[in-house]
Description:
Blueprint: E1 30-38, E2 41-49, E3 54-61, H1 71-85, E4 92-97, H2 109-121, H3 123-127, E5 130-139, H4 141-149, E6 157-161, H5 168-176, H6 184-193, H7 200-204, E7 219-224, H8 229-243, E8 251-256, H9 263-266, H10 268-279
Parallel strand pairs: 3-4, 3-5, 5-6, 6-7, 7-8
Antiparallel strand pairs: 1-2, 2-4
Amino acid sequence: MWRYIFVFILFISCKKDEPTMADDPLSSAFKGKMSISYHDIKLDIAVEKPAQKEADVLLVFHGTVLYDSLTLAAANGILEKFKELLDRKDMMIISVAYPGEKMLLGDNIAHAEAALLWVKNKAEDALKIKIKKVFLAGHSQGGYLVTRLNTMHATDGVIANAPGPLNLVYRCELEETGKIPSGVFCTRLRMQYGTTSTNPSAYMDRSLLSFVDGFKADILFVQGLNDTPIQMNSWPVFKREIQQCGQCKQVKILEIAGGEHASLFVSPNAKTEFNAFINSR
Length: 281
């Protein structure tokens, strides 16, 4: 089974898909689900908007789920986890229920980009609030997505916890040789491209190791050093590559000794660094 699955099952109740604002929309709070679209890409998002006229935005991305029917629950759950991390109450949090069930791993970067561009270009009108700064944050595959987005669009800062997959050649070769059980994502790639031995470049092109330079905003990577063996096999190489980036904004790396895959959400040191990163920008 895919080892990067990390789902927080937490539902946020909302009577309507679209927000219902109070008489004074610039000061009304809102918490619930919205359906959005940008460049013909449709997505659901979970929103927690503070009762104020302007706010910074934290746009967050959950980890891998196997079925698209679970993405909204995952989006709600990761919103709550990032809300618990924040030491301030004046940020608007928007969490993206991105798909993945019926596509090749990495193709959902188009959906992640659509969500970011919607925030930049449409969210003010839709949510009746002035947006100041935009930050990205993601866990696991969500960390993969925000790292890739940081090579595409400028924001005010990016946080990636245990981002992956780092190296799909290594990961999928283990499945092909029977060293670990087969998973849906590598199977789908093999059906499209053949094996890692016959077409390694197709797998590497989708690995995060192919997105280690050209960062357009400062980025904080958080990595527990007791993560899965697959993650830790490629982490030293990924760390070295991003540290050597010559065309990047500031790259900060926080390693948590003994920390596991969700270190950002359980380590007091990670929480401190997370808030210091946002508050200093």
